[in-house]
Write a structure and sequence with these properties.
385 residues, alpha+beta, Ribosomal Protein S5, domain 2, Alpha-Beta Plaits, 2 domains, 7-stranded mixed beta sheet, binds 2-deoxy-2-fluoro-alpha-D-galactopyranose
């Protein structure tokens, strides 16, 4: 059963009537371009086939109710909240995400009361953007109920505001833009500064390849300090250099820029500048149909995130190393880091071997067994019914 059907069915059970509509949004994998979004740089995500659906009906009493479906159909309902009373910091846990969206849309004058029922299968805490898929589906539902048509770029910015100010996670624009704009069989080449986006065809299977997604089960969170500290470091470096963002450093200016910075900021800048370059090179190779050649770029991205940006962890390193040792063409951690998922580019006929090697490497170290699936570029957010 689709997540939209699950959400609709649960809505009927909880509210005794059909929802006015159901909207859903996917999680994402970022092929390459990590920690570049809040530096005005380049990213290259695709949507995964796991989604969060929100079944919704309008209310006329300024109140928002939110229920979420857990495994085996058990529903959990948050305390109802008056939309005019929503303030940052007042709500924690999973209800903060839909409430934060209601708060930001209230600020935009775009929402009224609503009953929302959520169902989803994006693994939580896996760095696959489950929270952003929830926020995107909620935003589309609330805007849809209000009959308000807005551009995806505005919706993405409002969701960022909800994350930053209401939830307290200083994240960028990557995840929600991917969830809203990705399309089947494509990666989304996004220039975060200009907002320009290009759908680049991405069909690994045509080349006998797969993107194996490895959820390490080491859970991560961006409300904790590691992510924010990196972001602040990048902003400080840009300020010292007198530029709007690290995006403004070209690769051939990198050494000169590094020489002007205090030692502790240099690795951050090096990562961002080289990572932007790796995104551009990946896009160029995909356009030339040279899929196999992106492997070394993925691995270089991982090394940079591990050694310079320092956002990897043992589980992510072991996943990437074991996958490569078993024949993957390249492998890297994805998302914010400190846990979550990695990807490996593997030949279809080597997939089982790579999976077995990663599983064995985790067992050897007594890590929780990883979960793996093939990352097939899937549809972005929209209304289901
Ligand atoms: C997380 C954030 F939400 C994104 O904005 C992005 O910064 C990513 O980490 C790292 O590339 O997913």
């Amino acid at each position: 059963m689709s997540q939209a059907a699950r959400a609709a069915e649960a809505f009927e059970r909880l509210h005794g009537r059909s929802p006015a509509g159901v909207w859903s949004a996917p999680g994402r994998v970022n092929l390459i371009g990590e920690h570049t979004d809040y530096n005005d740089g380049f990213v290259l995500p695709f949507a995964i086939p796991y989604r969060t659906a929100v079944a919704a009906s309008a209310r006329d009493d300024d109140t928002i109710t939110v229920s979420t479906l857990h495994d085996r159909g058990r529903a959990e309902t948050a305390d109802p909240a008056r939309i005019s009373d929503l303030v940052p910091g007042a709500i924690s846990g999973w209800p903060a995400y839909p409430s934060g969206v209601a708060w930001v849309l209230r600020e935009q004058g775009s929402t009224g009361g609503a009953d929302l029922v959520i169902a989803g299968d994006v693994p939580a805490g896996a760095g696959l953007s489950s929270s952003h898929s929830l926020e995107c589906a909620t935003a589309l539902a609330l805007l849809g109920l209000a009959g308000s048509r807005q551009s995806n770029s505005d919706i993405a910015k409002w969701i960022q505001q909800a994350e930053n100010d209401f939830v307290g996670a200083p994240t960028g624009l990557l995840d929600q833009t991917a969830s809203l704009n990705c399309t089947e069989a494509h990666v989304l080449f996004l220039d975060v500064r200009s907002g320009e986006a290009e759908q680049v065809p991405f069909d690994a299977s045509r080349h006998g390849l797969e993107v194996l997604v490895i959820d390490t089960r080491a859970s991560h969170s961006h409300t904790e300090s590691g992510y924010g500290a990196r972001r602040r470091g990048c902003e400080e470096a840009a300020k010292i250099l007198g530029i709007p963002a690290l995006r403004d450093i070209a690769l051939d200016e990198l050494d000169a820029a590094l020489a002007k910075l205090p030692e502790e900021l240099r690795p951050l800048v090096k990562h961002v500048v080289t990572e932007n370059e790796r995104v551009l090179q990946t896009v160029a190779l995909l356009k030339q149909d040279k899929y196999g050649e992106i492997g070394p770029l993925l691995s270089a991205s991982h090394a940079s995130l591990r050694d310079d940006y320092r956002v990897s962890c043992d589980e992510l390193d072991v996943a990437a190393e074991a996958a490569e040792a078993a024949g993957a063409l390249g492998a890297r951690m994805i998302g914010g880091g400190f846990g979550g998922s990695a990807i490996a580019l593997v030949r279809g006929d080597a997939r089982a071997e790579v999976e077995a090697a990663v599983t064995a490497a985790f067992a050897e170290r007594s890590f929780t067994a990883p979960r793996m699936f093939t990352g097939v570029p899937s549809a972005g957010a929209g209304q289901d019914r």
